[in-house]
Structures are given as C-alpha cells and as structure tokens.
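URGENT: need a sanity check before tomorrow's submission.

F., can you look over the Molybdopterin-guanine dinucleotide biosynthesis protein B record below? I want to be sure the sequence and structure line up before it goes out.
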Amino acid sequence: MAAVRVLQVVGFKNSGKTTLMLDLLKQATQRGMAVSTVKHHGHGGALEMPSNETDSMRFFQKGASCSIVYGDGVVQIHQRKKQATLAELVAFASAENPELVLVEGFKEAHYEKIVLLRSAEDWLELQKLEHIALVIAPELLKLDNVPVILQNDSKKLYFWFTNWMDGDSNEGI
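Structure tokens as predicted:
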C-alpha cells in the first residue's frame, strides 16, 4: 500500500473550514479519487450519537469498547478512546486505502495544511503552524514562502489543489 496523502484545513471558528473541505472533497472525488475525512469536534462535549434503542448503541451503552454495525454498504463504528492522536485517526481513516485523507482541524499536527484566515490578524497566531502549504485570506497578503489565494478565487484554488493532488505541492499560483 502506498502512503496516503494527507491535507489539513485549519483556521479559527467560522473561517470556512467545512465549506472548503466539502469543495476539496468534491474536486477529488470528481477526479475518481478515494477520499477519507477526519474532523476535530471542537465544540465541546460528546458527539451526537444514534438512538439508544439501536442494537449497536445498546451494546455501546452496556460497555462495549467498540460497537460496529454494517448494513447496505455502510459501516458505522463507535469506539471509546480517552485520547486519540491525529496520526491514529488518519491510520483508521486509511483502512480502506484511500488516496487522500482530508483533515479538518488539529492545527498543531505535522501534515501539510491550508490555513484559512478571517482577517489579517488571524495570521499573527496561525503563522507559527508547521507545514503551511497555502493560505486563503479575505485580502491579499504578502507572506514569505507561502502562497496566498483570496477567499473567493475558486479558480486559483482549483488550480492549486489539482497541482497538489498531482504531487506538485511546490507549484506557484
């Protein structure tokens, strides 16, 4: 199995991360790529779960460390884990050998990332992140060694992501 490519989408709350993830997912799947996604639930509290009346949730509620249900081509997994690293989640998301894993959040992780800015002030804190491949900003910024695309420039973003998927992450815009 070849190593899976991982691309993170990071930024502060309401910066457009999920919207961008959906756009990148659509672009990659239209090219016929198998894509997995991982999202950091940064809203606090536990995730919303299916009804406690389902058999799989009854197993989970009674103490199963992992409950898996399969039906009509879909696998649903609920697993207890006190802490999970992004590397573990990427490995889990790679179980079906995708060509790409898109990650929303996990700012401090070491994968290549697209940084979304709501304003130039966001850059003051986010510039410390490692492996920044692209910045998407509401206004044109001049950054050393990091390409910048304006938020609404979908054509340049499409071009950049196509080149990135083809393995040319150094391609200029």
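My own read: The helical segments are 17-30, 55-61, 86-93, 120-126, 154-165. The two ends are 31 Å apart (CA to CA). If you see anything odd, call me.
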